[in-house]
Design brief:
By secondary structure, the protein is mainly beta. The strands form 9 sheets. Strands 27, 28, 29, 30, 33, 34, 35 and 36 form an 8-stranded mixed β-sheet that branches. The chain has a 6-stranded antiparallel β-sheet with strand order 15-14-16-20-37-23, with helices on one face. The protein is built from 4 helices and 37 strands.
Length: 525
């Protein structure tokens, strides 16, 4: 169904509007003399007609089709059977079954030999026999009928390119045997053959994920908490690490994930588009650095000592004082774990990213900013345990200071989780706080198994602790006698090889505060 093309009406302007010629070519001037006017009519003039045109166009664009929006599309894939290239046009809101003949209008069609086939619930497929060498932008305008082939229920416009640049159709995954003691995972699907290395200093290394979404779009930026706006992104001339142009946060873009188990393996999959069984991770940001400052104002900025000797409740309050959407790190930590795992395919985060500031001789945390020279690259300053490490714009994600995880409470080895930041409260085990489907390991030690709850698939807490620094999760699990506890992750400045992304401590009460515990900002809106 073609778009309505409105007419731009213009008034006719002449020198003698009432002058005519009779049949003998004599010039005469006529004067209106209608007699009594019972009702003034509406003049047929440009402003009236253009108002009608606007109304028709508006109605055409906004008929009761259900919705009008720009849809996401997958990249071209080659059909092995036909040799043709195919695009799946997909949107979860499409409920129509049939594309109506003649209702697919393709602009710039001469550049591609396109047909459409296989319309289905949630989308349809377009096909071309070959892709051109040049990059082409093509617009599809379409209408769909519902299952009775009578009522228009959806329409939309899709802009697509013949070049595969967005990884839209790809799924990057890993799997790990449920019986292995190895820390490594096997790459599967579109992750097969990919390589990920972390830098030591500024020496470049190969990391294929630098060009793959969502990792490619993770970026640090400056944020003005007063004006509530981004002031610069990493790479911009005005970007500053030191906080002088706003707090330094790192954006994690939206993507879709799936984590599940079968009888033999655990799987983690990441995709740019929504697929069956996948869960959306909304865009969020975390502090590039752990919080610094004081009770008056907390910051994420380079060059400052971490704020410590604050309990989890006060850290939450300090973070929220920055404005709507701010808090401290919570269940989003599990999202970061999954991003790391699919990228590096190994639980041993210290061996992949660097040991972090964890040497047992340290007596205090180091100031933030040690990894500024790495920019958005992952790695460490020198590969030793005397300097900080960074994972994609998140410095000291382990090591230097422990970090509180909000929204998780533990009672007698049973972990409870809350996903609603407005309901976060310590020592709470009902209401919005739900028990996981397993209990924590009964003894402390190096993590050898993590729990899995199909109702909370991203949450993985240690259930068995008989591992080592080089097997299974490679990180330690601290627990204490039964009671009400809170959770910390990562380890501090003296935790050596026990530190890492899977180092958990569920040993302290909610009132606990000390010189080796800090927190990290989280921004969700």
């Amino acid at each position: 169904m073609k778009q309505y093309v409105k007419t731009d009406w213009k008034d006719r302007l002449v020198q003698f509007p009432n002058r005519y010629k009779d049949q003998n070519n004599n010039v005469i001037t006529l004067t209106q003399d209608p007699g009594e006017v019972a009702q003034d009519g509406t003049m047929v003039e440009a402003k009236v007609m253009n108002n009608i045109e606007e109304g028709i166009e508006h109605l055409f664009e906004n008929r009761s089709f259900g919705y009008t929006k720009t849809l996401l599309v997958a990249n071209w894939t080659k059909n092995a059977s036909t040799g043709y290239y195919e695009y799946d046009i997909i949107d979860e809101n499409i409920t129509a079954q049939t594309i109506v003949d003649g209702m697919l209008d393709i602009e710039n069609q001469a550049k591609l030999n396109i047909s459409y086939t296989e319309s289905y619930l949630g989308g349809f497929k377009v096909i071309t026999t070959e892709l051109p060498n040049e990059e082409i932008s093509i617009t599809f305008k379409y209408s769909l009928l519902n299952s009775d082939d009578k009522n228009l229920v959806a329409r939309g416009t899709i802009n697509v390119s013949s070049k595969d640049t967005d990884n839209l159709n790809k799924v990057y995954g890993i799997r790990r045997s449920l019986t292995t003691s190895s820390s490594s995972w096997e790459r599967i699907k579109d992750a097969v053959g990919l390589v990920a290395h972390a830098q030591v200093g500024t020496t470049p290394v190969r990391n294929d994920f630098d060009e793959i979404y969502p990792w490619s779009d993770i970026i640090s930026y400056n944020y003005d908490t007063t004006a509530r706006q981004v002031t610069a992104y990493y790479g911009d001339p005005t970007f500053k690490f030191d906080g002088s142009n706003g707090d330094v946060l790192t954006k994690i873009p939206e993507f879709y994930w799936r984590r599940y188990r079968d009888s033999n393996y655990e799987y983690i999959l990441i995709s740019k588009k929504k697929l069956a069984g996948f869960v959306k991770s909304e865009e969020f940001s975390v502090g590039r650095y752990t919080m610094s400052g004081s009770s008056s104002r907390v910051y994420s900025r380079s060059g400052y000592a971490p704020l410590t000797n604050v309990n989890i409740t006060n850290f939450r309050n300090y973070a929220r004082a920055l404005g709507s959407g701010f808090g401290q790190m919570d269940w989003h930590y599990f999202i970061l774990q999954m991003l790391y795992l699919v990228e590096y395919a190994d639980y041993n985060s210290q061996s992949k990213l660097g040991k972090g500031y964890t040497n047992g001789s340290h007596t205090a945390p180091v100031n933030s900013g040690g990894c500024d020279r790495l920019g958005m690259k992952s790695g460490s300053v020198d590969g030793t345990d005397n300097t900080s490490m960074i994972y994609r714009g998140i410095e000291d994600i382990f090591g230097n200071v422990w970090q509180f995880i909000d929204g998780i409470n533990i009672r007698n080895s049973q972990t409870y989780i809350c996903y609603d930041a407005n309901k976060y409260a310590v020592d709470t085990f009902s209401g919005s706080y739900k028990a996981l489907g397993y209990t924590n390991a009964p003894t402390e030690g190096y993590a050898s198994k993590l729990g899995y709850d199909s109702a909370n698939p991203m949450v993985a807490i240690t259930t068995e602790a008989t591992g080592s620094t080089s097997t299974n999760m490679c990180d330690y699990f601290y627990r204490s006698a039964d009671g009400d506890r809170i959770a910390l992750v990562g380890g501090g400045y003296g935790h050596g090889l026990s530190a890492g992304l899977w180092l958990w401590s569920v040993t302290v009460a909610s009132s606990s505060l000390n010189s080796y515990c800090g927190a990290r900002l989280l921004k969700t809106s």
